[in-house]
Structure formats: structure tokens, C-alpha cells
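Format notes (please read before filing issues)

Several people have asked whether sequences and C-alpha cells are stored in separate files. They are not. Every record keeps both together, in the order shown below: the sequence lines, then the C-alpha cell lines. Line labels are part of the format and must not be stripped during preprocessing.
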Amino acid sequence: MKKTMIYRRKMYNVDPSILDDFNEHFNKTLLPTQLKYGSRLVGRWMTKKDNGIMEIFAIWEYDNYENYEIIENKVKSDEEHVKRVQNWHKKNGWKRKTQRNIL
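Then the structure lines:
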């Protein structure tokens, strides 16, 4: 069976009041950990929805589905990363809304 490169779209809906904090969190916590384990960021975009919420989505590239699973398991097993993410959520009192799509 031929292994096919895949792309993942990860979406966040962010209240504008924490947009700067979220962008800093992405750049200092989420992005470095993903890159550390082999994810490749294709791009990241933001748009304001009608209700004022900022929709942010990132496209990630992986060699194949197995590669994606390996990387995601490493990210989820990285205790320091998990602590940083949990601390950020606690500090901001914000429960993230995420939608992941494998394209």
C-alpha cells in the first residue's frame, strides 16, 4: 500500500480579548513542540467571524498518517509541553474550542 502525504487543519476559535496571549502561546509553546517532533507548518491564518470571534487555523504537513500518529503521540507524551499548555489554559481561564481535520 502506498503511503500518502497528509495535511491536518487545526482550528481555534479565540475571543479577541486573549488574541495576543494566544498568538504568543502558539509561537512560544505550540509551534516549537510540533516542530521539535517533526511536524511541518504549511501556514497559519486568522479571520474575524461575524460574532467577533477570531477563527485561527493552521495547516500541518506529515509524510503519511503513521508519521502523524507518531508525532502526535510524542507531543501528547511531552510532560513539559503538556504542563505549559495546561498552565496557559488555567492562566487565561479559557477553554479552547478546537476542530481537527485530516485532509
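For reference, the curators noted about this record: The chain is about 45% helix and 30% strand. The helical segments are 19-36, 65-77, 79-92.
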